[in-house]
Each structure stands twice: as structure tokens, then as C-alpha cells.
Design a protein that fits this description.
By secondary structure, the protein is mostly helical. The protein is built from eight helices and no strands.
Amino acid sequence: MDWKLLITALVTLLVIVDPVGNAPVFLTLTRGSDDRRRRRFADQAVLAAAAVIFIFAFFGTYALEYLGVSIESLTVAGGLLLGIVALDMMKGKVGAGDGAIDGANVALVPFGTPLLAGPGAVVAAMLLMDQPDAGGKAVVSVGILLALVIVWSALRMAAALVRVLKRTGVDLLTRVMGILLAAIAVEFVYQAVSSWIKAG
């Protein structure tokens, strides 16, 4: 198994989805729900996010081919997009705002997508899945699944997590993850530019 690829996929998705930073958002959106219902929302949100991420990871490249967009162009666009998300994270601007949303669809929209399975996660999954063999794709799939399991666990323990870390701790971790995401964004752009230079 390619452990480096596995860790890259796991860390990239975790940093983008930011389960710790999204825990307070999840609590806000499910305010007024009992623990049982909140856990059910967490299950539904992660399942919805997984479906969106894997659909784009496996079939997004076919859409690119149809549109005539190269993987290098997507990599640069993805790097720039992740860079914007990273800046927002470092500034503490990531979040859904206050106010609970009524009804079970809170798990699907807005939390499952676009908060968990947003443009950044989708593009990152597509780029990571661009592997030359089935073994590489399987490793990336495992990494994505592990990231989603961690996200699911964090959401089911959201109330306890926020109590332990406090708001200051959550904000600090979100900013640290923003720095890591910025580094990943730069690496994406660097890889694409290097590929263009080699091809030229």
C-alpha cells in the first residue's frame, strides 16, 4: 500500500472538511434537537457528503474530458479555490452563521453539501483520484473513507468536542488547518505548473 498517498488523501480531506471547525456549525443548525435526532442528522450528513464526493471523484474527470478541460487546468483552479478557502479559515470566516434550520433536510442541505462536500472537497477528491492504476485509486478511496469516518465521529461527539476545546480552541484549530490547506493549495499549483513545463 502507498502509505504516502493514503496519508495525503486523508489529511487533505480532513483539512478541507474541518470537522472540528464545523462542529459548532452543526450544533447551531441542529439546535433544539435531542441527542438521538442529532446523531441521525450526523449519519445523514456524512452519507450525503460521501455520495457527492465519490460521484465527483470517480466521474468528474469524464465531465472534464467532455468539456475539453485538462487535469492541469483543474489542478490550478483547485489550488486557487483551496487557497481562497484557506484564507477564509485563517481569518476565521468559515461557518454558516447563526440560526437553526427546521426539518430533517438540514443534514443534506446545507450541512452535507455544501458545508462538508463543498467545491474544495470535491475538487480535491477529483485531483487525488487522478491515479494511473486501480491500486492508487483504491488507496485514495480508503483515505477519503477514513476522513469521512473521522468527520462522522466528530459530528456525533460535537457537543462534547466544543465543550472540551471551547470556542477559542476551535478557532485556533481552524486557523492552523487553514495554514495546512494553504500549503496543500500551493503544492497543487506547483504540480500543475511543473507538468506544463515538462510537457513544453
